[in-house]
Every structure is written in structure tokens, then in C-alpha cells.
Amino acid sequence: MDKLIGFDQIKKLSIHYKKIKKSIVFTNGCFDIIHAGHVLYLEHAKALGDILVLGLNSDQSVRQIKGDKRPVIHQEHRVCVISALACIDHVVLFDDPGPGHLIETVCPDILVKGADWPEDQIIGADFVKQHGGRIKRVVLEPDISTTKIIERIGELYYGKQPN
Q: Which of 39, 77, 108, 160 has its CA 20 to 30 A from that of 84?
């Protein structure tokens, strides 16, 4: 869990990385039930630069976005699992529904989101571009998502999709 850091720490580290000419890649998400699609996405993001900072939605943030039944996995456990991935350099939890404030704190060179997000709807894209950065949209693995996994479990155990 030593990869988990706060806003103040990531701000200082981001300044340091820029001074030593390391490129910072930023992405974010809930990463509720980690699956192969997540791992491939994060490895792709890491390959785009030197340092990968992951903004992880807190439990409070996930509930705001996805409703009271999510997250399935609590933030402490999500941090533990995501921190075990070699491609992740730093994890920062955030409580807001969107990562805008965190993106402004990190000021990444590259902002990564899934290709399912149109660039004009990516939170922080304008800020990153205004500060000389770029946006990369990564094609997601087809037919794998946390929602689909939850639906499949419901089908297997209850013969239907959960409400």
C-alpha cells in the first residue's frame, strides 16, 4: 500500500518528475472488480510514459457515480489490488465524482481514458492540452467489464440479472 499517496504528496512528486524530465501519465477509474481488461488498459497507459499515476474513485465517489450498490469491493481492498500491479507507480484516492481537481494537481503530460469516452467529454482534457499535454484514448477489451461480470454472477447464481 506504499503506492497510495495523498494530494500533497502527488503534487510534490509531479513537480519533481517534471524537473528530472520524467513524463507523467494519468488515468482514473473505479476499478471495482479488477479484470483482464483493467490490467491490459493500465499496462497500455504505463507504456505511454515514465510514471503512471492512477486516480482511484473512493467508495463515496463510486456511490455518487454508480449508485448505492457499488462499489462491490471497498476502497482499501481496491487500493491493495491495484497497488500490486507493477505498471502502477502511484495511487491517489479522490472523493469527487470526477477527477478534475486531481488532474490539475498532477498536471500530467498524458491523460488516458478508454476509447468509449469522446475526447470532448473527458474530464481534464482541456486543462491537460492547455498545459502542453495530450490525450490518449485506449481501445478497451471487448465484452469484459465489471458490470458484465456482476450480471454473469447474477445469472449463474440466481438465474437472472441482479437489480
A: 108
